[in-house]
Amino acid sequence: MRVPGAARFLTAARASHAVYGSIVVLAVVTGLDEASATPREAFVATIGAAIAVVLAEIYADMIGTTIHERRPPNRAEWHEFVIDVAFGFGAACIPAAFFLLALSDAISVGDAFTVAEWTGVGVLWVYALVASRAAGLGIVRALMWAAGLTSCGIGIVELKKLGGH
Known about the structure:
Blueprint: H1 5-9, H2 12-31, H3 39-69, H4 75-103, H5 109-134, H6 139-162
């Protein structure tokens, strides 16, 4: 059965890919040292991480489908894989935009790191909120649920501070 509008556009698989890609890139961004990483290095690292996530997800989807269906993926399944991982790539690339701004001297490198980290956390929060509302939670419970799930992203950012970055 086809679901109209946004519910069809934002599937569980696409949201999963976007969250996974966002968490991996957030971990890469927080792992970089702001004091020694240039904007170019940070941009290339975040895009590289996003590409690695896309390749890993396509590979995993292909293997999973082959095992589950006992046949290689067909053309329609490949098409769906590509659309699903495009969500992950898009969400994962959001922090890279701030390093591109730093590369063009529009913002400082330190600001790029700060905004990239917290934007990554924001992406996680938005997906958690959308998921909780789609599950039928009221707005207060949805906000609380989203805050709880987003704590993993906040934890990644805070670990960086504990490590002295």
